[in-house]
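Workshop exercise sheet. Pairs work together: one partner reads the sequence aloud, the other fills in the structure field after running the prediction. Swap roles for the next sheet.
Pair: D.N. / O.F.
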Amino acid sequence: MTACSPSGGDGSDLQEVRVSEVIRSIFYAPQYVAIEKGYFKEEGLNVLLDTAWGGDKAMTRLLADQTDVALIGAETTVYVQQQGAADPVVNFAQVTQRDGSFVIARNKIDNWDWSMLKGKSLIGSRKGSMPEMVSEYVQKQNGLQPFTDVNIIQNISFDNQATAFASGTGDFLQAFEPSGAILEKAGQGHVVASFGEDSGKLPYTVFMAKASTIKSEPETFQKFTNAVQKAQNFVHSSTPEEVAKVILPYFEGVDPEIVAAVVKRYQESDGWAKDPVIDQEEFDNMKKIMKDAGELKADVKYEDLVNTTFAEKAQAN
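Structure field:
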């Protein structure tokens, strides 16, 4: 954690906490709400947010002490553990509890069936990433063999995937919002299915930090998690329009109606966790998906990579 700095205006001091998010997405609305509604500042924290544009990049920043907290999928902590890290990265506050990606088709499909992917091409994600593992898991659960029945395109960078699809690449696209809603409005695609509904609950996106950092600054992490819980309360008790208005500064150039529509989609698909607690059932489901993808080299213990102390206190309060 960095030194305290003036909050500007009220004479109090705010402790700066550097946060690196994996991508910029409406899926992470609770984080933006916590910043914009002043929940972090109420706890005495000034969050400095940057976007890494990749789980591997966000984790690299965390391991190199270039950031204090990372918002990534919990699977990244497993990879660090499997590499024999002396200072493990620990998950301490959950933000999303399901995969937040959707299947985008070129034409509207009223009665979607996963078998429609057979013999088609799908723009997917990087090998070992949770979106890709979930995609492969859902395909197998529905009788499809990834890379055999479905041609998964993985050589397009995340920030260029929607553009590539709009330009004619692939029959289907696995995308996070607002890409789907933007493609729909432009008449270039249609959201036809949710990967999250068929893969079950898991610690999809969580706040994490080095174990040593958490041990040295427990009060700071409690304050941070308290703010996360307040934001979760807000996104679950507010209308899509209210949430959209708060987070709009993070999505410049995106139609406010699209932002509201995406918020509604995530509320209805149960994508956002109601509290920061990462329970073992969700963690075990994540491990099952990783094992199915061949990415779980050895078992990892829930208690070694998850700290629920701060989340449970935030929830109780």
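Discussion prompt: DSSP finds 15 helices and eleven strands in the chain. What would you look at next?
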